Amino acid sequence: MKSLVIFLFYLISASGLTSKPPKNRYVYIKTDLGESVIRLYNETPLHRDNFIKLTKSGMYDGTLFHRVIKNFMIQGGDPDSKKAKNGAQLGEGSLGYTIPAEFRDSLFHKKGVLAAARDDNPEKASSSSQFYIVQGKIFDDEKLNAVEHDRLKSKIPEWKRTVYKNLGGVPSLDGNYTVFGEVVTGYEMVENIARVKTDTNDRPITNVKIKIRILNRHQAKKIERQLIKQQ
């Protein structure tokens, strides 16, 4: 642990930064099928701050995970889903603005990441509120080669390949949707939701309601201590 602290201090000193790095922010997602804690990435501040703002306002409470595709992802955050009738198609709801894309090569679609949904706008700007959590699947080199050729039109670096071959994810989405957080505890919730029965529009037959809140400083520190012990 001591060596880790020294290493981090060295990185900060070498960069020439005089201020402390921003503290991690965590959100807690609760559903009838489980609960998860998600760390929001500081590398994507526009998405982080927007998600925090909407969570604090209570916008997400009562919305649904309205689009579920097993071995792919679970999607939620459509404001129209709060009062939607059973079986109604969802996914077009918006708060009237978009968020500029914040693509980072180090942030990609591995299993468990939080990313922003969007429409087909050429700037790849994100939805104001809709998000998804990646379930994905394990890939081998042959399948990754096919993704490179058919979808990405570029090479997947070896370090990413290692993650997709061992942890899993959805590499075809890289560079097209902003990744801005990841599940740190409670990934079972994603697995449980991914198994539910859905209709022809991928909407769960039984509503999966969402409640999200910001974890305070004490709760965040407790989670970080738990994560360090797990390493």
Task: Please give the structural blueprint.
Blueprint: H1 2-15, E1 25-31, E2 34-40, H2 45-57, E3 65-69, E4 73-76, E5 98-99, E6 113-116, E7 126-127, E8 131-134, H3 141-152, H4 158-166, E9 179-185, H5 188-194, E10 211-214, H6 217-230
Antiparallel strand pairs: 1-2, 1-10, 2-9, 3-4, 4-8, 5-7, 6-8, 6-9
Describe it for me?
The structure is a single chain. The protein has 231 residues and is an alpha+beta fold. The protein has one domain: Beta Barrel (Cyclophilin), CATH 2.40.100.10. Helix content is 30%, strand content 20%. The chain has 6 helices and 10 strands; from the N terminus they run H-E-E-H-E-E-E-E-E-E-H-H-E-H-E-H. The protein has an 8-stranded antiparallel beta sheet, sandwiched between helices. Strand 3 (65-69) and strand 4 form a beta hairpin. The chain is globular. 32% of the residues are buried. Residues 2-18 have low confidence and may be disordered.
- State which percent range the strand residues make up: 15-25%
Q: Note the quaternary state here.
A: single chain
Write the CATH architecture name.
Beta Barrel
CATH class label: Mainly Beta
DSSP summary: helix tally: 6
Q: What is the strand arrangement across the widest sheet?
A: 3-4-8-6-9-2-1-10
Query: What does the main sheet amount to?
Result: 8 strands, antiparallel
Structural class: alpha+beta
Low-pLDDT residue spans: 2-18
Distance between the termini: 10 Å
At CATH level 3, the topology is Cyclophilin
Q: Could you say which overall geometry the principal axes of the C-alpha atoms support? A: globular
Radius of gyration: 18 Å
